[in-house]
Amino acid sequence: MMDVLTKEIIDHFNGLKDLENKEIRHINDMTFPEDPLRVLRAARFSATLDFKIAKETIDLSKKIDLSFLAKERVLTETDKALLGLSPASYFYALKDMKQLSFFYPELEKMIALRQDATYHDEDAFDHVMLVVEEAAKYKDLAMMPRYFMYAALFHDIGKIDQNQRHTIIGQAIAKEALERFTNEKYLLKYVQKAIGLHMDVLNMYKDKSKDAKIIRLLDKFKYPKDLLLLALCDIKGRKSNYYSDEMIEDYILWAKKSLKIYEEFKDRPHLGGRDILALGYRGPIVKKILARARYLEVAIQDEKEVLKIIRKEFP
């Protein structure tokens, strides 16, 4: 507060010092718990401003019941945190406040979850937080920044079920987690697809796969650039030296080349529904034939040759 006559700053709660120290602190033990949303907002401000939260605020937040918060409010705060300067701070704050399990029990299960030591020196939760921090650096390059951040958050969530392949079971786990707060079908579809495909990108990079295989993989995801960026954040978001700086630079070059190859394929003329209907096909089989034609077009540029194969395979 400023005295309008003397221009003197009146600072009853030492707010200037907290600003200087980049620290978030509540000012009243009695009034702070009156609005449970303040707990999430403290965590969110930690992410959007890259501030730390005072210990006494953390301790008080542990005692506040958040069960009455509307799911829309939780989603809004999480959205803002994920698009902030340090999104991992939001989840670490909720963890320190003993509130993470209430909203995201799946993430809570990742804490202390050991991973393959060949690739990771950190537990699964810390790996995800490192990936989320990397994703924050690249989100402005993504076609769908908000969706991209949620994909980074949940990309390895399937690891909590170690009896199944994490890229498969992770899709169902992420869907269940997100549906507590939203029914946005495009967000759910994006996140599930990204979870299912992100390891395929890394495997293709390691195997130096041929162009046709890369094109077919990227063609499975509506936003291929985002998928390549997610894989980059995954390899950078770890404490181990499995991926050296040279390998990361090599991956970036490979990803740029792969995206260019895919975009050149996408810009080519392709067979459409009318072409298939013109052959006399009708009904649900048209969709199946179109998918097969798209697959063939990766390696065969002659439309007549593709149609010839289609007629043979679908008599």
Describe it.
Helix 2 links the parallel strand 1 and strand 2 (52-53). 61% of the residues lie in helices and 1% in strands. A two-stranded parallel sheet has the order 1-2. It has 17 helices and two strands. The protein has helices at 15-20, 37-49, 55-61, 71-82, 87-96, 100-103, 105-108, 124-138, 145-154, 166-178, 185-207, 211-218, 224-236, 245-267, 273-278, 285-297, 303-313; strands at 23-24, 52-53. It folds into three domains: 15-103, Hydrophobic Seed Protein; 124-267, no CATH class; 273-313, no CATH class. The radius of gyration is 24 Å and the shape is elongated. Helix 9 (145-154) crosses helix 11 (185-207), helix 10 runs antiparallel to helix 11 and helix 13 packs antiparallel against helix 14 (245-267). The chain has 315 residues and is mainly α.
Brief descriptors of the model:
315 residues; mainly alpha; Hydrophobic Seed Protein; two-stranded parallel sheet
List the helices and strands and how they pair.
Layout: H1 15-20, E1 23-24, H2 37-49, E2 52-53, H3 55-61, H4 71-82, H5 87-96, H6 100-103, H7 105-108, H8 124-138, H9 145-154, H10 166-178, H11 185-207, H12 211-218, H13 224-236, H14 245-267, H15 273-278, H16 285-297, H17 303-313
Parallel strand pairs: 1-2
Helix pairs in contact: 2-4, 2-5, 5-8, 8-9, 8-13, 9-11, 10-11, 11-13, 12-14, 13-14, 16-17
